[in-house]
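Running this now, will post back.
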Amino acid sequence: MNKNHFSALLLLAAFVLAGCATSVTLSSVPDEAHLVVAKSSISGTLPISTSIGRTTFGKYPFKVEKEGCEPMYGMLPLNVSGTAITMDVLFFAPAAFWTAQRAFPFYQFDLEKQIIRYKKGERDEWKEYPVTEQERSKAMTFFGE
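Update: finished.
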């Protein structure tokens, strides 16, 4: 293998590995609720800063609980990444849709209003996402409740 082939292989590996996870910060209203995100290793008392893998067409069911509040179930809203799709098509076509969806960098679970807030940047405005009854039912079924 010549030097150019090796460099191209390293570049390709870097693109593939870079597209595998997204850093996220998760919080709640009220503070210190307990979160479990299925299909991931995320579980614990909020706030949490961690990473979560990208996905193709799946969703991440979640459950948020805090004593004195109604539990919240739903599917984590995800960001469809046009950049990731483009990079996959250009550099690794078989994975063109493997990393199509990724988590937003910031989430806030509001147990009182039963909504999820999310944003891309720390200084951005929160966008509100009300959990649908269908998503709630799917998540409850996933958690066996």
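Residues 5-19 have pLDDT under 50 and may be disordered. More later if anyone needs it.
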